[in-house]
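Suppose you are handed a protein chain with no further information: no name, no annotation, nothing but its sequence. What can you learn? This example shows the usual starting point.
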Amino acid sequence: MAGSFQVITSEVPKVRGVALESPARFYLPVNRLHPLKLTARNLEKVTAVLWCVFPSNLTDFTGALLGEDSGKWEAEQYAEEVARHEINFPPIPDRKVQADLDPGAILSEDRRGVYLITFEGGDVYAWQAYPFVWTNIGMLAYHAGKDVTVIVHRLDSLEPVPGATVTLVSHKRQELATAQTDGEGLARFALPDFRKGKPALVWVATDQDAAFLALRDNPSDETVRGIPQEALDLHMFSAENYDGFVYTDRNLYRPGETVHARFLVRQRYLEPAAGIALQARLTDPKGNVMRNWPVTLSSLGSGGIDLETARTWLTGRYVLELQAPGSPQTVGSAAFNLESFVPNRLRASVEMDKPFAGPGEIVLIRGHAEQMYGGPAVGYSGEVRVILNPGKWEPVQWPGYRFSHGDYMKPVIKNLGRAVTDAEGSVQFSFAVAEAADLEAPLQAIARIAVSEPGGRDVVARQSFTVLPAEPALGLLVEPINDQRAARVRVAAVKSDGSSADLPDVSVALETERWNYHVRRMDNGYTIHAEPYYVTLEIRQIPLSQGAGETDFSLKDLWGRYRIRVFSSATPLYATSVIFAGWNGISLAEDSRPSLVKVTTDKERYTP
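A reasonable first move is to predict its three-dimensional structure. Written in C-alpha coordinates, the prediction is:
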Protein backbone atom coordinates (compact mmCIF):
# COMPACT_ATOMS: atom_id res chain seq x y z
CA MET A 1 0.00 0.00 0.00
CA ALA A 2 1.42 3.30 -1.03
CA GLY A 3 1.52 6.22 1.33
CA SER A 4 3.49 9.30 2.31
CA PHE A 5 5.34 10.51 5.39
CA GLN A 6 6.85 13.79 6.51
CA VAL A 7 10.30 14.29 8.12
CA ILE A 8 10.64 17.24 10.47
CA THR A 9 14.12 18.31 11.56
CA SER A 10 15.26 20.67 14.30
CA GLU A 11 18.59 22.24 15.14
CA VAL A 12 20.79 20.12 17.44
CA PRO A 13 21.78 22.01 20.60
CA LYS A 14 25.37 23.12 20.49
CA VAL A 15 27.77 21.51 22.95
CA ARG A 16 29.24 24.26 25.06
CA GLY A 17 31.96 24.06 27.65
CA VAL A 18 35.27 25.32 28.97
CA ALA A 19 38.03 23.47 30.82
CA LEU A 20 41.63 23.85 31.97
CA GLU A 21 44.20 21.54 30.41
CA SER A 22 47.62 20.64 31.72
CA PRO A 23 50.10 17.77 31.27
CA ALA A 24 50.52 17.69 35.05
CA ARG A 25 46.74 17.71 35.53
CA PHE A 26 46.20 19.03 39.04
CA TYR A 27 49.67 20.15 40.10
CA LEU A 28 50.40 23.18 37.98
CA PRO A 29 53.48 25.17 38.97
CA VAL A 30 53.31 28.15 36.66
CA ASN A 31 55.36 31.19 35.76
CA ARG A 32 55.36 33.79 33.03
CA LEU A 33 56.94 31.40 30.54
CA HIS A 34 54.28 28.72 31.01
CA PRO A 35 50.71 30.12 31.08
CA LEU A 36 47.67 27.99 31.80
CA LYS A 37 46.05 26.41 28.75
CA LEU A 38 42.26 26.76 28.45
CA THR A 39 40.09 24.82 25.98
CA ALA A 40 36.55 25.82 24.98
CA ARG A 41 33.85 24.82 22.50
CA ASN A 42 31.18 27.12 21.07
CA LEU A 43 32.14 29.88 23.49
CA GLU A 44 33.63 33.21 22.56
CA LYS A 45 33.94 34.75 26.02
CA VAL A 46 34.04 33.49 29.60
CA THR A 47 35.07 34.97 32.91
CA ALA A 48 37.82 33.23 34.88
CA VAL A 49 37.50 33.66 38.64
CA LEU A 50 40.71 33.18 40.68
CA TRP A 51 40.48 32.10 44.31
CA CYS A 52 43.42 32.06 46.77
CA VAL A 53 43.30 29.18 49.27
CA PHE A 54 43.82 30.35 52.84
CA PRO A 55 47.06 28.77 54.19
CA SER A 56 45.19 27.65 57.30
CA ASN A 57 42.83 25.62 55.07
CA LEU A 58 45.47 23.74 53.10
CA THR A 59 45.18 20.67 55.34
CA ASP A 60 41.39 20.51 54.75
CA PHE A 61 42.07 21.01 51.05
CA THR A 62 44.22 17.85 50.83
CA GLY A 63 41.77 15.91 48.64
CA ALA A 64 41.80 18.50 45.87
CA LEU A 65 45.59 18.76 46.00
CA LEU A 66 45.90 14.97 45.68
CA GLY A 67 43.83 14.93 42.48
CA GLU A 68 40.25 14.46 43.62
CA ASP A 69 37.62 16.44 41.74
CA SER A 70 36.79 19.77 43.36
CA GLY A 71 33.97 22.20 42.69
CA LYS A 72 32.94 25.79 43.21
CA TRP A 73 31.63 25.01 46.66
CA GLU A 74 35.20 24.22 47.80
CA ALA A 75 36.40 27.52 46.42
CA GLU A 76 33.71 29.32 48.37
CA GLN A 77 34.49 27.31 51.52
CA TYR A 78 38.30 27.28 51.58
CA ALA A 79 39.42 30.32 49.57
CA GLU A 80 38.87 34.00 48.91
CA GLU A 81 38.12 35.54 45.52
CA VAL A 82 41.02 37.71 44.43
CA ALA A 83 40.53 38.46 40.72
CA ARG A 84 38.27 38.14 37.69
CA HIS A 85 39.51 38.10 34.14
CA GLU A 86 37.67 37.90 30.83
CA ILE A 87 39.02 35.41 28.29
CA ASN A 88 38.22 35.59 24.58
CA PHE A 89 38.27 32.50 22.35
CA PRO A 90 38.41 32.39 18.51
CA PRO A 91 34.82 32.38 17.08
CA ILE A 92 35.01 28.96 15.40
CA PRO A 93 31.77 26.95 15.80
CA ASP A 94 31.75 23.26 16.78
CA ARG A 95 35.50 23.10 17.19
CA LYS A 96 37.78 23.02 20.20
CA VAL A 97 39.66 26.29 20.52
CA GLN A 98 42.33 27.34 22.96
CA ALA A 99 43.42 30.44 24.83
CA ASP A 100 46.13 31.24 27.35
CA LEU A 101 45.70 32.54 30.88
CA ASP A 102 48.82 34.02 32.47
CA PRO A 103 48.28 34.39 36.24
CA GLY A 104 51.31 36.65 36.38
CA ALA A 105 49.44 39.24 34.33
CA ILE A 106 46.52 39.18 36.76
CA LEU A 107 48.01 38.54 40.18
CA SER A 108 50.56 40.68 41.96
CA GLU A 109 53.96 39.28 42.91
CA ASP A 110 53.06 39.37 46.62
CA ARG A 111 49.98 37.14 46.14
CA ARG A 112 51.69 33.86 45.32
CA GLY A 113 50.34 30.61 46.71
CA VAL A 114 47.81 27.83 46.06
CA TYR A 115 44.86 28.90 43.88
CA LEU A 116 41.60 27.65 42.42
CA ILE A 117 40.19 28.75 39.09
CA THR A 118 36.50 28.57 38.16
CA PHE A 119 34.59 29.79 35.09
CA GLU A 120 31.41 31.84 34.70
CA GLY A 121 29.35 33.33 31.84
CA GLY A 122 29.04 32.24 28.26
CA ASP A 123 25.58 30.71 28.91
CA VAL A 124 27.21 27.57 30.29
CA TYR A 125 27.30 25.96 33.72
CA ALA A 126 30.88 25.04 34.73
CA TRP A 127 30.86 23.53 38.22
CA GLN A 128 34.45 22.28 38.40
CA ALA A 129 37.27 24.12 40.16
CA TYR A 130 40.88 23.58 39.12
CA PRO A 131 43.74 23.94 41.63
CA PHE A 132 47.09 25.35 40.54
CA VAL A 133 50.15 26.93 42.09
CA TRP A 134 51.42 30.42 41.41
CA THR A 135 54.67 30.27 43.32
CA ASN A 136 58.39 30.77 43.40
CA ILE A 137 58.82 27.83 45.80
CA GLY A 138 60.08 24.48 44.58
CA MET A 139 60.12 21.30 46.64
CA LEU A 140 61.80 17.91 46.49
CA ALA A 141 60.94 15.13 48.90
CA TYR A 142 62.82 11.99 49.90
CA HIS A 143 60.42 9.47 51.44
CA ALA A 144 61.71 6.19 52.92
CA GLY A 145 59.64 4.38 55.52
CA LYS A 146 58.87 6.63 58.46
CA ASP A 147 61.52 9.19 57.50
CA VAL A 148 60.65 12.10 55.22
CA THR A 149 63.12 14.78 54.14
CA VAL A 150 61.90 17.85 52.24
CA ILE A 151 64.09 20.33 50.33
CA VAL A 152 62.61 23.78 49.78
CA HIS A 153 64.23 26.06 47.23
CA ARG A 154 63.51 29.04 45.00
CA LEU A 155 62.45 28.21 41.48
CA ASP A 156 64.23 31.15 39.88
CA SER A 157 67.69 30.64 41.44
CA LEU A 158 67.50 27.20 43.17
CA GLU A 159 68.72 28.89 46.36
CA PRO A 160 67.49 27.24 49.58
CA VAL A 161 64.56 28.81 51.42
CA PRO A 162 65.33 28.90 55.17
CA GLY A 163 62.66 29.47 57.82
CA ALA A 164 59.74 28.14 55.75
CA THR A 165 56.95 26.25 57.56
CA VAL A 166 56.62 22.70 56.23
CA THR A 167 53.57 20.60 57.13
CA LEU A 168 53.27 16.86 56.52
CA VAL A 169 49.72 15.56 55.88
CA SER A 170 48.55 11.93 55.74
CA HIS A 171 46.16 10.23 53.31
CA LYS A 172 43.62 10.31 56.16
CA ARG A 173 43.68 14.14 56.03
CA GLN A 174 45.55 14.33 59.34
CA GLU A 175 48.41 16.70 60.10
CA LEU A 176 51.39 14.48 60.99
CA ALA A 177 54.09 17.01 61.81
CA THR A 178 55.30 20.56 61.24
CA ALA A 179 58.88 21.79 60.95
CA GLN A 180 60.92 24.83 59.93
CA THR A 181 63.51 24.56 57.16
CA ASP A 182 67.14 25.06 58.16
CA GLY A 183 69.79 27.15 56.44
CA GLU A 184 70.05 24.65 53.59
CA GLY A 185 66.28 24.57 53.05
CA LEU A 186 65.95 21.10 54.64
CA ALA A 187 63.12 19.91 56.87
CA ARG A 188 63.34 16.41 58.34
CA PHE A 189 60.55 14.30 59.81
CA ALA A 190 60.88 11.03 61.75
CA LEU A 191 57.41 9.58 62.32
CA PRO A 192 56.86 7.24 65.29
CA ASP A 193 54.07 5.25 63.56
CA PHE A 194 51.35 5.42 60.90
CA ARG A 195 48.30 5.56 63.18
CA LYS A 196 47.18 8.83 61.61
CA GLY A 197 47.90 7.53 58.13
CA LYS A 198 50.86 7.38 55.80
CA PRO A 199 52.47 10.59 54.51
CA ALA A 200 50.64 11.74 51.39
CA LEU A 201 51.22 15.46 50.91
CA VAL A 202 53.62 18.20 51.94
CA TRP A 203 52.74 21.85 51.88
CA VAL A 204 55.06 24.72 52.61
CA ALA A 205 54.27 28.32 53.47
CA THR A 206 56.22 31.52 53.90
CA ASP A 207 55.00 35.04 54.63
CA GLN A 208 54.32 35.71 50.93
CA ASP A 209 54.15 32.32 49.24
CA ALA A 210 52.84 28.76 49.51
CA ALA A 211 53.12 25.51 47.53
CA PHE A 212 52.39 21.81 47.86
CA LEU A 213 53.82 18.48 46.74
CA ALA A 214 52.12 15.06 46.58
CA LEU A 215 54.33 12.23 47.89
CA ARG A 216 54.84 8.96 46.08
CA ASP A 217 54.71 5.61 47.82
CA ASN A 218 57.94 4.66 49.54
CA PRO A 219 60.07 1.82 48.09
CA SER A 220 59.15 -1.73 48.99
CA ASP A 221 61.08 -3.82 51.49
CA GLU A 222 61.77 -6.58 48.98
CA THR A 223 64.42 -7.33 46.41
CA VAL A 224 63.85 -7.37 42.67
CA ARG A 225 62.97 -11.06 42.89
CA GLY A 226 60.28 -10.47 45.51
CA ILE A 227 62.28 -12.23 48.24
CA PRO A 228 62.41 -10.44 51.62
CA GLN A 229 65.84 -8.97 52.22
CA GLU A 230 66.22 -10.67 55.62
CA ALA A 231 65.76 -14.11 54.04
CA LEU A 232 68.80 -13.59 51.84
CA ASP A 233 71.01 -12.51 54.78
CA LEU A 234 72.67 -9.82 52.64
CA HIS A 235 73.19 -7.45 55.53
CA MET A 236 76.21 -5.75 54.01
CA PHE A 237 74.29 -4.44 50.99
CA SER A 238 70.94 -2.64 51.05
CA ALA A 239 68.65 -3.22 48.11
CA GLU A 240 67.10 0.23 48.58
CA ASN A 241 70.37 2.16 48.45
CA TYR A 242 71.08 4.18 45.35
CA ASP A 243 74.04 3.37 43.14
CA GLY A 244 75.05 6.27 40.90
CA PHE A 245 77.54 6.94 38.12
CA VAL A 246 78.50 10.58 37.59
CA TYR A 247 80.65 11.69 34.68
CA THR A 248 81.66 14.86 32.84
CA ASP A 249 82.36 15.49 29.16
CA ARG A 250 86.04 15.90 30.06
CA ASN A 251 88.10 16.27 33.21
CA LEU A 252 90.03 19.46 32.43
CA TYR A 253 88.55 22.94 31.88
CA ARG A 254 89.64 26.54 31.72
CA PRO A 255 88.03 29.01 34.15
CA GLY A 256 84.88 30.38 32.48
CA GLU A 257 84.05 27.20 30.54
CA THR A 258 80.90 25.13 31.12
CA VAL A 259 81.14 21.70 32.73
CA HIS A 260 78.58 19.30 31.25
CA ALA A 261 77.91 16.66 33.92
CA ARG A 262 75.59 13.68 33.48
CA PHE A 263 74.58 10.91 35.85
CA LEU A 264 72.78 7.57 35.99
CA VAL A 265 71.29 6.22 39.23
CA ARG A 266 70.00 2.72 39.95
CA GLN A 267 68.23 1.22 42.97
CA ARG A 268 67.56 -2.37 44.01
CA TYR A 269 70.72 -3.22 42.04
CA LEU A 270 69.21 -2.95 38.53
CA GLU A 271 66.11 -0.74 38.50
CA PRO A 272 66.29 2.91 37.31
CA ALA A 273 65.75 5.36 40.17
CA ALA A 274 62.91 7.00 38.26
CA GLY A 275 61.83 10.45 39.44
CA ILE A 276 63.98 10.33 42.58
CA ALA A 277 64.87 13.67 44.19
CA LEU A 278 68.57 14.01 45.00
CA GLN A 279 70.87 16.81 46.03
CA ALA A 280 73.95 17.87 44.08
CA ARG A 281 76.95 19.36 45.88
CA LEU A 282 80.03 21.06 44.46
CA THR A 283 83.26 21.21 46.49
CA ASP A 284 86.18 23.48 45.58
CA PRO A 285 89.92 22.62 45.76
CA LYS A 286 90.03 23.86 49.38
CA GLY A 287 87.33 21.41 50.43
CA ASN A 288 84.71 24.14 50.83
CA VAL A 289 81.15 23.47 49.66
CA MET A 290 80.50 26.04 46.94
CA ARG A 291 76.93 25.16 46.09
CA ASN A 292 74.04 22.82 46.90
CA TRP A 293 71.08 22.44 44.58
CA PRO A 294 68.29 19.87 44.06
CA VAL A 295 67.99 17.60 41.03
CA THR A 296 65.19 15.27 39.94
CA LEU A 297 65.98 12.17 37.91
CA SER A 298 64.14 11.24 34.73
CA SER A 299 62.04 8.12 34.23
CA LEU A 300 65.27 6.34 33.24
CA GLY A 301 67.07 7.37 36.42
CA SER A 302 69.23 9.83 34.49
CA GLY A 303 69.90 13.53 34.76
CA GLY A 304 72.40 16.24 34.03
CA ILE A 305 73.84 19.56 35.16
CA ASP A 306 75.45 22.23 33.00
CA LEU A 307 77.73 24.06 35.40
CA GLU A 308 79.09 27.42 34.28
CA THR A 309 82.44 28.15 35.90
CA ALA A 310 83.74 31.67 36.43
CA ARG A 311 87.13 33.17 35.68
CA THR A 312 87.40 34.09 39.35
CA TRP A 313 87.16 30.47 40.52
CA LEU A 314 90.20 28.84 42.12
CA THR A 315 92.21 26.55 39.91
CA GLY A 316 92.52 22.97 41.06
CA ARG A 317 90.40 19.89 41.60
CA TYR A 318 86.62 20.17 42.06
CA VAL A 319 84.27 17.37 43.14
CA LEU A 320 80.63 17.07 42.10
CA GLU A 321 78.61 14.72 44.33
CA LEU A 322 75.06 13.36 44.40
CA GLN A 323 73.49 12.68 47.79
CA ALA A 324 70.15 11.52 49.11
CA PRO A 325 68.60 14.52 50.90
CA GLY A 326 69.26 14.41 54.60
CA SER A 327 71.81 11.59 54.27
CA PRO A 328 75.62 11.89 54.40
CA GLN A 329 75.94 8.93 52.02
CA THR A 330 77.26 9.79 48.56
CA VAL A 331 75.31 8.23 45.70
CA GLY A 332 77.99 9.02 43.13
CA SER A 333 80.70 11.58 42.43
CA ALA A 334 82.97 12.88 39.70
CA ALA A 335 86.04 15.10 39.86
CA PHE A 336 87.25 17.63 37.32
CA ASN A 337 90.13 20.08 37.21
CA LEU A 338 90.06 23.79 36.53
CA GLU A 339 93.41 25.03 35.24
CA SER A 340 94.61 28.25 33.65
CA PHE A 341 97.30 26.42 31.60
CA VAL A 342 100.20 28.59 32.70
CA PRO A 343 103.53 27.32 34.09
CA ASN A 344 104.09 27.35 37.84
CA ARG A 345 105.36 30.71 39.01
CA LEU A 346 106.44 29.46 42.42
CA ARG A 347 108.62 26.66 43.75
CA ALA A 348 107.96 25.21 47.21
CA SER A 349 109.93 23.07 49.64
CA VAL A 350 109.41 21.77 53.17
CA GLU A 351 111.76 20.50 55.87
CA MET A 352 111.63 19.34 59.49
CA ASP A 353 114.02 19.87 62.37
CA LYS A 354 114.21 16.09 63.03
CA PRO A 355 113.60 12.91 60.99
CA PHE A 356 112.12 11.04 63.98
CA ALA A 357 109.84 12.13 66.82
CA GLY A 358 108.81 10.17 69.89
CA PRO A 359 106.09 10.62 72.51
CA GLY A 360 105.81 14.14 73.91
CA GLU A 361 108.11 15.67 71.27
CA ILE A 362 107.34 18.58 68.98
CA VAL A 363 108.39 18.73 65.33
CA LEU A 364 109.09 22.14 63.75
CA ILE A 365 107.99 22.20 60.12
CA ARG A 366 109.29 24.97 57.93
CA GLY A 367 107.94 25.63 54.45
CA HIS A 368 109.71 27.82 51.93
CA ALA A 369 108.51 29.35 48.65
CA GLU A 370 110.53 31.16 46.01
CA GLN A 371 109.81 32.75 42.66
CA MET A 372 110.75 30.79 39.58
CA TYR A 373 112.60 33.84 38.27
CA GLY A 374 114.53 34.11 41.56
CA GLY A 375 114.05 35.54 45.01
CA PRO A 376 111.78 34.59 47.91
CA ALA A 377 108.00 34.55 47.42
CA VAL A 378 106.96 37.16 49.99
CA GLY A 379 103.36 37.65 51.11
CA TYR A 380 101.88 34.44 49.72
CA SER A 381 99.39 32.28 51.63
CA GLY A 382 100.79 28.92 52.72
CA GLU A 383 98.97 26.03 54.34
CA VAL A 384 100.63 23.12 56.15
CA ARG A 385 99.12 19.78 57.11
CA VAL A 386 100.50 16.50 58.43
CA ILE A 387 99.18 13.23 57.02
CA LEU A 388 99.63 10.21 59.29
CA ASN A 389 99.79 6.71 57.76
CA PRO A 390 100.89 3.36 59.20
CA GLY A 391 104.65 3.11 58.89
CA LYS A 392 107.70 1.15 59.96
CA TRP A 393 110.10 1.84 62.77
CA GLU A 394 113.32 -0.19 62.82
CA PRO A 395 115.59 0.71 65.75
CA VAL A 396 119.17 -0.36 65.12
CA GLN A 397 119.37 -2.10 68.50
CA TRP A 398 116.69 -4.60 67.42
CA PRO A 399 117.51 -5.81 63.89
CA GLY A 400 114.86 -7.99 62.26
CA TYR A 401 112.15 -7.13 64.78
CA ARG A 402 108.79 -5.94 63.49
CA PHE A 403 107.17 -3.09 65.46
CA SER A 404 104.14 -2.59 63.18
CA HIS A 405 100.98 -4.54 62.39
CA GLY A 406 99.01 -5.36 59.26
CA ASP A 407 95.58 -4.10 60.34
CA TYR A 408 93.97 -1.34 58.29
CA MET A 409 94.25 2.18 59.62
CA LYS A 410 92.55 5.11 57.94
CA PRO A 411 94.95 7.99 57.22
CA VAL A 412 94.67 10.82 59.73
CA ILE A 413 95.04 14.42 58.53
CA LYS A 414 96.14 17.13 60.96
CA ASN A 415 95.67 20.66 59.63
CA LEU A 416 98.27 22.91 61.21
CA GLY A 417 96.89 26.13 59.79
CA ARG A 418 97.59 28.80 57.21
CA ALA A 419 100.03 31.72 57.30
CA VAL A 420 101.58 34.34 55.00
CA THR A 421 105.18 33.88 53.91
CA ASP A 422 107.65 36.24 55.59
CA ALA A 423 110.50 38.28 54.09
CA GLU A 424 112.41 35.05 53.45
CA GLY A 425 109.42 33.38 51.76
CA SER A 426 108.96 31.02 54.71
CA VAL A 427 106.21 29.84 57.05
CA GLN A 428 106.72 27.78 60.18
CA PHE A 429 104.40 25.47 62.11
CA SER A 430 104.78 22.92 64.88
CA PHE A 431 103.35 19.41 65.15
CA ALA A 432 102.92 17.81 68.57
CA VAL A 433 103.23 14.02 68.68
CA ALA A 434 100.69 14.08 71.52
CA GLU A 435 97.99 14.70 68.88
CA ALA A 436 98.59 11.12 67.64
CA ALA A 437 98.86 9.45 71.06
CA ASP A 438 95.76 7.29 70.52
CA LEU A 439 97.06 5.64 67.34
CA GLU A 440 98.23 2.02 67.57
CA ALA A 441 101.31 1.77 65.37
CA PRO A 442 104.48 3.62 64.36
CA LEU A 443 103.60 6.20 61.75
CA GLN A 444 104.93 7.59 58.53
CA ALA A 445 104.11 11.29 58.77
CA ILE A 446 104.03 13.38 55.60
CA ALA A 447 104.46 17.11 56.03
CA ARG A 448 102.67 18.86 53.14
CA ILE A 449 102.88 22.56 52.33
CA ALA A 450 100.64 24.22 49.75
CA VAL A 451 101.49 27.78 48.68
CA SER A 452 98.76 29.55 46.70
CA GLU A 453 99.68 31.42 43.53
CA PRO A 454 97.81 34.65 42.65
CA GLY A 455 95.31 32.68 40.54
CA GLY A 456 94.54 30.37 43.45
CA ARG A 457 96.50 27.35 42.22
CA ASP A 458 98.47 25.52 44.91
CA VAL A 459 102.14 24.66 44.54
CA VAL A 460 102.77 21.65 46.76
CA ALA A 461 105.84 20.13 48.42
CA ARG A 462 106.04 17.06 50.69
CA GLN A 463 108.56 15.54 53.08
CA SER A 464 108.15 12.49 55.32
CA PHE A 465 109.37 11.70 58.83
CA THR A 466 108.73 8.91 61.36
CA VAL A 467 106.53 9.26 64.43
CA LEU A 468 106.30 6.91 67.41
CA PRO A 469 103.02 8.00 69.06
CA ALA A 470 103.52 6.15 72.37
CA GLU A 471 105.93 4.00 74.32
CA PRO A 472 106.91 1.38 75.01
CA ALA A 473 106.77 0.08 71.46
CA LEU A 474 106.21 -3.65 71.18
CA GLY A 475 107.98 -5.73 68.55
CA LEU A 476 108.36 -9.37 67.62
CA LEU A 477 110.65 -11.59 65.59
CA VAL A 478 109.22 -14.92 64.40
CA GLU A 479 111.51 -17.81 63.41
CA PRO A 480 110.07 -21.06 61.95
CA ILE A 481 111.33 -24.33 63.53
CA ASN A 482 110.46 -26.78 60.78
CA ASP A 483 111.95 -29.91 62.36
CA GLN A 484 109.52 -29.44 65.27
CA ARG A 485 106.72 -27.84 63.20
CA ALA A 486 106.72 -24.86 65.54
CA ALA A 487 107.40 -21.11 65.54
CA ARG A 488 109.76 -19.37 67.95
CA VAL A 489 108.54 -15.91 68.89
CA ARG A 490 110.98 -13.35 70.31
CA VAL A 491 109.30 -10.23 71.75
CA ALA A 492 110.65 -6.85 72.80
CA ALA A 493 109.44 -3.77 74.67
CA VAL A 494 111.43 -0.73 73.57
CA LYS A 495 111.62 2.97 74.38
CA SER A 496 111.67 5.63 71.66
CA ASP A 497 115.48 5.83 71.81
CA GLY A 498 115.76 2.07 71.15
CA SER A 499 116.73 1.10 74.69
CA SER A 500 114.92 -1.62 76.65
CA ALA A 501 111.70 -0.61 78.38
CA ASP A 502 111.03 -1.41 82.02
CA LEU A 503 108.03 -3.66 81.40
CA PRO A 504 107.61 -6.89 83.39
CA ASP A 505 105.71 -8.91 80.79
CA VAL A 506 103.68 -8.81 77.59
CA SER A 507 100.84 -10.89 76.13
CA VAL A 508 101.37 -12.98 73.00
CA ALA A 509 98.38 -14.43 71.12
CA LEU A 510 98.25 -17.15 68.49
CA GLU A 511 95.32 -16.44 66.15
CA THR A 512 93.87 -18.30 63.19
CA GLU A 513 92.76 -16.42 60.11
CA ARG A 514 89.09 -16.59 59.09
CA TRP A 515 87.15 -14.89 56.33
CA ASN A 516 83.78 -13.17 56.18
CA TYR A 517 82.05 -13.63 52.84
CA HIS A 518 79.15 -11.40 51.82
CA VAL A 519 77.24 -12.38 48.70
CA ARG A 520 75.44 -9.75 46.66
CA ARG A 521 72.73 -11.38 44.61
CA MET A 522 72.30 -10.21 41.00
CA ASP A 523 70.04 -11.35 38.18
CA ASN A 524 73.04 -12.59 36.26
CA GLY A 525 75.02 -14.09 39.13
CA TYR A 526 76.63 -13.20 42.44
CA THR A 527 79.19 -10.65 43.59
CA ILE A 528 81.33 -11.75 46.55
CA HIS A 529 82.98 -9.42 49.05
CA ALA A 530 85.45 -11.04 51.44
CA GLU A 531 87.34 -9.64 54.44
CA PRO A 532 89.63 -11.44 56.92
CA TYR A 533 89.28 -11.60 60.68
CA TYR A 534 91.18 -13.51 63.37
CA VAL A 535 90.06 -15.93 66.08
CA THR A 536 92.29 -16.32 69.15
CA LEU A 537 93.51 -19.86 69.83
CA GLU A 538 95.87 -19.20 72.74
CA ILE A 539 97.22 -16.28 74.81
CA ARG A 540 100.43 -16.46 76.84
CA GLN A 541 101.97 -14.05 79.33
CA ILE A 542 105.68 -13.78 78.46
CA PRO A 543 108.03 -12.40 81.16
CA LEU A 544 110.63 -9.91 79.97
CA SER A 545 114.23 -9.52 80.96
CA GLN A 546 115.90 -6.29 79.85
CA GLY A 547 112.95 -5.72 77.56
CA ALA A 548 113.14 -9.10 75.79
CA GLY A 549 111.47 -12.49 76.04
CA GLU A 550 110.61 -15.52 73.92
CA THR A 551 108.26 -18.50 73.57
CA ASP A 552 107.58 -21.35 71.14
CA PHE A 553 104.20 -22.13 69.61
CA SER A 554 103.60 -25.68 68.37
CA LEU A 555 101.74 -25.86 65.07
CA LYS A 556 101.34 -29.64 64.88
CA ASP A 557 98.08 -30.64 63.22
CA LEU A 558 97.50 -26.98 62.25
CA TRP A 559 97.22 -25.87 58.63
CA GLY A 560 96.70 -22.51 56.96
CA ARG A 561 97.48 -18.89 57.86
CA TYR A 562 98.05 -17.85 61.46
CA ARG A 563 98.85 -14.54 63.11
CA ILE A 564 101.00 -13.92 66.14
CA ARG A 565 100.20 -10.71 68.03
CA VAL A 566 102.10 -9.10 70.92
CA PHE A 567 100.22 -6.56 73.04
CA SER A 568 100.06 -5.07 76.54
CA SER A 569 97.67 -2.91 78.57
CA ALA A 570 100.63 -0.58 79.23
CA THR A 571 100.67 0.75 75.69
CA PRO A 572 98.27 1.19 72.74
CA LEU A 573 100.95 -0.05 70.35
CA TYR A 574 100.97 -3.67 69.22
CA ALA A 575 102.73 -5.69 66.54
CA THR A 576 101.76 -8.70 64.41
CA SER A 577 103.41 -11.22 62.14
CA VAL A 578 101.67 -13.75 59.85
CA ILE A 579 102.92 -17.28 59.30
CA PHE A 580 101.77 -20.04 56.99
CA ALA A 581 101.59 -23.69 58.07
CA GLY A 582 101.71 -25.87 54.96
CA TRP A 583 102.53 -29.46 54.08
CA ASN A 584 106.18 -28.61 53.53
CA GLY A 585 106.71 -26.70 56.78
CA ILE A 586 106.29 -23.31 58.44
CA SER A 587 107.04 -20.10 56.56
CA LEU A 588 106.60 -16.38 57.06
CA ALA A 589 103.83 -14.75 55.02
CA GLU A 590 105.24 -11.45 53.77
CA ASP A 591 103.16 -8.30 53.51
CA SER A 592 102.12 -7.15 50.06
CA ARG A 593 104.76 -4.80 48.71
CA PRO A 594 103.74 -2.13 46.19
CA SER A 595 107.44 -1.69 45.44
CA LEU A 596 107.26 -4.91 43.44
CA VAL A 597 105.08 -3.09 40.88
CA LYS A 598 106.99 -0.72 38.65
CA VAL A 599 105.24 1.79 36.38
CA THR A 600 107.16 3.36 33.50
CA THR A 601 106.45 5.60 30.51
CA ASP A 602 107.90 5.29 27.04
CA LYS A 603 109.71 8.63 27.36
CA GLU A 604 110.35 11.33 29.93
CA ARG A 605 109.05 14.36 27.99
CA TYR A 606 106.11 14.83 25.65
CA THR A 607 105.24 17.59 23.21
CA PRO A 608 101.62 18.83 23.03
